[in-house]
Amino acid sequence: MTHTILLMQSTNKKESRTWADYETTNECMESICKIYEEHLKKLNPDKGCITYDISALFKFIDLLEDLCCLVFDDKAQVYAPKSKDWIKNEIFLLLRRQAAH
């Protein structure tokens, strides 16, 4: 895994655009999960424990106005754009690995 830039726009308003960079793709995927968890905490401020399943996380991703990653390709020395579907697959693989441990 390599340097990854996350580009996110939560609504159709340009002001909702944000970005972050991560040393690894896994760190980026973990951050997306944390963004969703923070969203759930805002929606449910009185709940001490928040739980969710992967389908709810994927629905959240789909509802974002825009979400993509730019992943550095060492061979080509360029950043390759990655779609929401790619992000969801990477999150699935990350969570599956975490569940196996």
Give a verbal description of the structure.
The chain is an alpha+beta fold and 101 residues long. Helix content is 46%, strand content 25%. It has 3 helices and 4 strands, in the order ββααββα. Strands 2-1-3-4 form a 4-stranded antiparallel beta sheet. α1 (25-43) packs across α3 (84-100). The protein is globular, with a radius of gyration of 14 Å.
Report on the biggest sheet. Answer: 4 strands, antiparallel
Briefly note the structural class of the backbone.
Answer: alpha+beta
Shape, please? globular
Whole-number average pLDDT?
Answer: 95
Spans where pLDDT lies below 50 across 5 or more residues: none
How big a fraction of the residues is strand? 15-25%
* Quaternary form: single chain
Keywords:
four-stranded antiparallel β-sheet; 101 residues; 3 helices; alpha+beta; globular; 25% strand; 46% helix
Summarize the structure.
The chain is of the alpha+beta class and 101 residues long. The protein has helices at 25-43, 54-63, 84-100; strands at residues 4-9, 17-22, 66-73, 78-82.
Describe the SSE topology.
Layout: E1 4-9, E2 17-22, H1 25-43, H2 54-63, E3 66-73, E4 78-82, H3 84-100
Antiparallel strand pairs: 1-2, 1-3, 3-4
Helix pairs in contact: 1-3
